[in-house]
Specification:
With 392 residues, the protein is an alpha/beta fold. It is built from 14 helices and 15 strands. The strands form 2 sheets. Strands 1, 2, 3, 4, 5, 6, 7, 8 and 9 form a 9-stranded mixed β-sheet that branches. Strands 14-13-10-11-12-15 form a 6-stranded mixed β-sheet, sandwiched between helices. The structure holds adenosine-5'-triphosphate (ATP) and magnesium ion (MG).
Length: 392
Amino acid sequence: MFKAFLIKYAEIGTKGKNRYLFEDALVRRIKEVLREIQGDFLVRKEQGRIFVECKKEYDYDEAIGCLQRVFGISGICPVLKLEDRGFEELSKEVINYIESIYSDKHKTFKVNARRARKNYPKTSMELNCDLGEVILDEYPEMKVDVHKPEIVLNIEVREYIYVYSIVIPGLGGMPLGTNGKSMLLLSGGIDSPVAGYMIAKRGVELEAVYFHAPPYTSERAKQKVVDLAKQVARYSGPIRLHIVNFTEIQLYIYEKCPHDELTIIMRRYMMKIAEQLAKDNNALGLVTGESIGQVASQTVKGLAATNEVCTMPVFRPLIAFDKQDIVDIALKIDTYETSILPYEDCCTIFVAKHPVTKPNINIIKRSEKNLADGIDAMMETAIHTTEVIEVK
Ligand code: ATP
Ligand code: MG
């Protein structure tokens, strides 16, 4: 029955003079996701509102599903769009609306009218009272409650008149592309896809890098990462995934450095390479799925040691999250099932039985001196032989 949606947005309303940039980015993203489904949708801005109009047959649930993946939307309101044919006609439409939406009329309600078009003959207050009366006449079982009504019947008088009472929650966050781009270190685990999702939610576009160590990590492990990127891309938009061949560097570290320092040193080289790729691709920050204390390399000292090699900001949105909270988000965004597939990842293969949990940066740096002969050339090769997959 609905041929239009009114899109509510929260935070972008606070951006002052730059507000239009945020609105335009939101409109762009809405158009993009709706292109994935059948139908012909017109997305337009009108005085602090975004409307989606459905010009052809479309699937309601599918359209809502798409809009519920758009960052920056706080609510999706299916609206009736009516021509102004006088109050009588409006009253009839409002009654039809209530009739078709609410099978049980034992509800409290209030009318919340807004007259954006000032030449409309009734004021907002008059509309509230008069429509309230019409509704009470038709449905004596309904009751007015102006403080905590179960139904808020919104009437917006513009060039057309819009009627809505349903607000389907959106994801919140900021529209994509309003905060530059960052490089996500994407492993096959549970955490990094969630971290990417969270940063994208703040309007940041993503590229991703995966450190692959064939033959120690299989094609299946790589495919798993591609699949995870695909899943994140449903929210974040297309992701360019850089696959770095990390085998030579890993073996070299394994050969030259103390085994209990392997993980930390390896992580430091991952960060260095990721930062270089970020710079080469105009990304402004790095994103990881690290969380304090989760594994040996993620003690505060461990994090300090990995952090020390980067000059770019490293975003760690999960830093204070408990595992279960991360899992909950992974379930919500549908990455969990893929993340728990049991394929080896490159960190688990070379991992020592008793890795250092309180690495001393000076000692780590001394160990890294053992790599001086070969590591620069290896890093260069790794960066130049990176495979790029466009994930949509
Ligand atoms: P995740 O669940 O994201 O794999 P984790 O708990 O397994 O995280 P680590 O393996 O210590 O933790 O990795 C910490 C972070 O380093 C990951 O969240 C990810 O951002 C990055 N990372 C680890 N391994 C790789 C890899 N092979 N390729 C790309 N990034 C990686
Ligand atoms: Mg991991």
